[in-house]
Amino acid sequence: MSAPAETPGRDTPRGGLLTRLGRVNPVFWLLIALLGIIVILSPNFLEPFGYMNFLRRAAPIAILAAGQVFVLTSGGFDLSQGAVVTLTVIGSSILLGANPDATAFVIAAMLAAGVTVGVVNGLVVAKLKVPSIIATLGMMITLGGIALTWSGGAPRGYLPDTFRFFGRFMFKDVPLVTILPVAVLVMIAVCAALWWIMHRTNFGKLLHAVGDNPRSALLAGVPVTKVRVGAFVLSSVSAVIAGILLGGFAGVSTDVGIGMELQAITAAVIGGARLLGGHGAVGASVAGALVLQALFTVLNMLGLPKPLRDVVQGLILISAVAVATWRRRRSGED
Amino acid sequence: MTPQAASTAEAGTPVFELRGIDKSFPGVKALKSVSFACRAGEVHALVGENGAGKSTLMKTLSGAYQPDAGAILLDGASVRFATPLDALNAAICVIYQEFSLLPERTVAENVFLGREPHRWGLIDRAKMRAETERVLAMFGSARRFNADARVGALDVAEQQLVEIAKALSRDARVIVMDEPTAALNDAECALLFDLIERLRDQGRAIVYISHRMPEIQRLATRVTVLKDGAVAATFDDVPAPDTIVRAMVGRDIAEFYPEAAAAPGPVRLSVRGGGNARLGGIDLDLHAGEILGLAGVQGAGRTALALALFGVLPFTRGIVTLDGAPVKLTAPRQAIAAGIGLLPGDRKSEGLALSQSVLDNGMLSPRAFAAVAGSPGRTPHGDTAAMAARFDALDLRAAHYGQPIGALSGGNQQKAIVARWLALSPKVLLFVEPTRGIDVNTKAAIYAQMRRLANEGAALLVVSSDLPEVLGLSDRVLAMQDGRIVGAFARGASEVEVMAAATHGAHAAKAVA
Amino acid sequence: MAGLRLTTLIPLVLLTVALAIYATVAIATDQPQFLTFDNLLSLLGRSIALGITAVGQTFVILVASIDLSVANLISVAAVLASFIMDGDPSRMFPAVCAVLAVGALVGLINGLVVAKLQVNPLIATLGMALILQGLLSASFNNFAGAVPESFQGFAYGQVLGVPVSLIFLLGLTVAAWGFLKFTRAGSNIYSVGGNAEAAKLAGISATKVIVMAHVLCSLCAATAGLYLASRLRSGAPWIGRDGVYDLESIAVVVIGGTALAGGRGGVWGTLVGVMIFSLIDSTFNIAGIDAFAKQILRGVIIVAAVAFYVARSKRMAA
């Protein structure tokens, strides 16, 4: 920590190129390193077919992470994201099974449902003061029950092509990259929008304040409830969008969303989000999601069986938080 | 008197001595070659402004901090306290302002925390209770609770007795008390002083940290003054208060507080019949251009009144009008929208978002009242450049304004909060403990800023537990007791007058037998 | 006891309300046979696994931590026990030892990660849950092995008409209560949970206490797994998840009066919480609500119960 300067300061710290490079979030270096390993293991990755597929598969988790980081920054957790994904997929398949041409309408309905879930989560946490762990775990169970009831326990696997367009379709003969999956476009658009909300609007700044110290924020006039609800809404809507993409290429099942909220949290934490709130960046969370996807890709290439993915993810989750906590303790508190 | 204490007293060796202590933290040198000693059977007063280093020095003695240089001597022999437990085991007990108690547990459990008497692995509760009662008996008529009482149910004075009981049950040779009377009323203070005198006569060494002159006159045998981390003066007797204060502050008090530029203007904020669970019968008028001070002991309702005017603990009865129009103040956001601002008493937990930048903290309220999707750089209440300019004008010292505000000193943090409110141009500003934990020079700057705000037409209310500060700053002072306003005083009233009004008919519940 | 405090009354009030609703529904649907004492006893019997888990969870929440890995640990315990025993009574003892050892190890790791690495307990135990799930599904994907008849006595045996399992649960609760109230280790749990800083200043090792609480919790979860293996006569990898033991054990502890912030509460309250949940579940069954709908309601009720409890205790603190 620098000593208080003698002269009144400026807005941003100074520093040469090396200092500025040192301040870049390590997640980006990690991503580059992992991508490097993938390229070494499989040079085909450098072909559009290689990296575009990678991005397409990473898109849902990137969107989930970008949404989850809003809730993390506000000081909470959204453990219901996975259930929202599942419900989106199952609900869409049921609604579209009856009316195959109503894709636009169904998507709109799903987004509205996502907003509702977010509002309920936000109000339960902000107004009823239920800890977000319990509130969103409860929502997860309830949504799971709704999905089971609605599908009678046996979801049909049908989703029309108009719906699967988002997850599956690829633009061909695109200049420079040859193929461009729609999923990647959606990911870029959604993440860009979320980035803008977090880093270029008042909402983002107020969110950081609420997560850092809700009492101070309240006394400074911040509409704390609205901000919290907003964070949960963004998280749930992201989950709906991720669900639409997943429905596109993974098909319909009751398992489709299981564990995704944990992946999103892992990704955000790798990206440097603080679990007690007050710090979160969309770009870094997306990078964290890509890191996670890259890691799984590497492990896959090395022949690690699927179930052990969970073990690896659990270890990464714990390590990421442990490392972040250790770094903060070393540089911060006395 | 324990044999060891008796021998050291005769030999003249201090029970403990801190010699040449240096202690630094990132960016600040908290203690510069400080020497401090205490003998058995004496009360050594340690005096100094906030930030002078008193707490740091005592934390070094108690083993919470390790000195960078210097020695700690116990009965003349050099010792090292690697952990606070080492100091406790050496019978050195420090009672901090923030008690170290477990509210959900009983008095006995707190007193014997970590060293519960046991038989065959099971806690011997009977023994624990008996021992605790024995120690509590030393307080005589002062204590009104027994060993099985839940600490969370006791009031502050009683909790303080529990802390002292912890020290006594270890037969402490050294007891350090940090501002023990901050939360006590007169009757409770009297009992505490008697107790301290008894402990002193038992041969214990007492370190008494305070800046209240009457108490020091009453209790102390010797006085040491700390200023800016170094010993400013050591007196082997108890000199006159002025001498002590001059050593503490380095200038005359009177220079501190700027006078009003003109007579107060029209009434801006008015309360009639205001009341809630904590307050009753509140009638007051706040004029433009004036600073109104609230005086009273802890619990009198001063902060509650400020919080009521800000919508945090709203009035449930009565009418509040602002510039003639009635207002409903049921939430801080409403109050701010109406033009009322509040600087909270506990900066760190209520005023700041510590890991956010200085600039973000300053811009917090302007952004809270701008469009949710709007740009954070430009708000209807000014942009970031204007805020930075305000910081510069207030002489806010920071390496750069993007720095996390938690790294700044208390005074600079307060300046950021002041800047935040300046951006909103409030009609009424409520200050709760505006200079708590702030160094002397910044205090003067804040007083000047407050006067400037008043001169520009705002109405200011000040709540402070520092009575000289309230009297020096305010154009008018209201004394409060038990949630009611019990007296009004013009500028120039004496501390005695005001405190007499504020403690008239002391709490019946605490009447001494 | 120094006065019965209002906060200890809330769980009892909730219990009375739950009982009233249960009775009302039983009568309204013309099924008064559910109101016999035998039936109420079997009510508690259906929640043995939850009860054992919740007693363990109480320790952890008392130290201001939390354990979300219990559900998966239960699965691991059940599958492991069943797999090792493989129907052979002579392998019962080694199986139980192995399962308890695994439980202790998991608890040890959880405790160290939370106390020494200072990782948020939610993340630490969620991460452990993931690891356990991965290890389990990598090795098993269906019922494994079988539990010998003699071990099934745990779940099905009776002594003087009272189920062995119920006696075990009550015995466990008594032991836990005694530990918390009379031993120094138990007292330290309350101290560290109440004010870790003050406890450390008094020389109590917060790390040891937190680790101990987590080990006790995991041992209980492992025991619950053993019970379930005994009941289902074999162990399957989805047992823990299906029973939602993680969220339910936390909810039951909170409703029983133990504060999530630590330092306050106890195991008897947890048992009352278990009874309340049992009653709710049975009320659904009597009313004929199907399993899926039950799940929807369960989520809502858990949140509502915790919200109610938070609201009441805040009002009392104010």
Description:
The complex is a heterotrimer of chains A (334), B (513) and C (318). Chain A is mainly alpha-helical and 334 residues long. Chain A has one domain (44-331): Orthogonal Bundle (ABC transporter involved in vitamin B12 uptake, BtuC). Chain A has helices at residues 17-22, 26-41, 48-73, 81-98, 103-126, 132-151, 161-168, 182-200, 202-212, 214-219, 224-250, 260-270, 282-301, 308-331; strands at residues 170-174, 178-181. In chain A, helix 3 packs across helix 12 (260-270), helix 5 packs antiparallel against helix 11 and helix 12 (260-270) packs parallel to helix 14 (308-331). The longest helix of chain A is centred in the last third of the chain and has 27 residues, at 224-250. Chain A is globular, with a radius of gyration of 21 Å. By secondary structure, chain B is α/β, with parallel strands linked by helices. Helix content of chain B is 34%, strand content 24%. In chain B, the strands form six sheets. Chain B has a six-stranded mixed sheet, with helices on both faces. A six-stranded mixed sheet of chain B has the order 18-21-22-15-23-24, sandwiched between helices. In chain B, strand 4 and strand 5 form a beta hairpin. The longest helix of chain B is centred in the middle third of the chain and has 16 residues, at 186-201. With 318 residues, chain C is mainly alpha-helical. Chain C has one domain: ABC transporter involved in vitamin B12 uptake, BtuC (Orthogonal Bundle). Chain C has a two-stranded antiparallel ribbon with strand order 1-2. The radius of gyration of chain C is 19 Å and the shape is globular. The chains are: A mainly alpha (334), B alpha/beta (513), C mainly alpha (318). Chains in contact: A-B, A-C, B-C. At the A-B interface, helix 9 and helix 10 of A face helix 11, helix 12, helix 13 and helix 14 of B.
Count of extended strands of chain C:
2
CATH topology of chain C: ABC transporter involved in vitamin B12 uptake, BtuC
Give the biggest sheet of chain C: 2 strands, antiparallel
Q: What is the oligomer described by this structure?
A: heterotrimer
Task: Report the C-alpha radius of gyration of chain C, rounded.
Answer: 19 Å
Low-confidence stretches of chain C: none
Largest interface: A-B, 40 and 54 residues
Q: Give the termini separation of chain C.
A: 24 Å
Count of discrete structural domains of chain B: 4
Q: Count up the helices of chain C.
A: 15
- Beta-strand percent range of chain C: under 5%
Bulk shape of chain C: globular
Structural class of chain B: alpha/beta
Helix content of chain C: over 70%
Low-pLDDT segments of chain B: 1-10, 506-513
- The succession of helices and strands of chain C, N to C, reads HHHHHHHEEHHHHHHHH
Shape of chain B: globular
Strand order of the largest sheet of chain C: 1-2
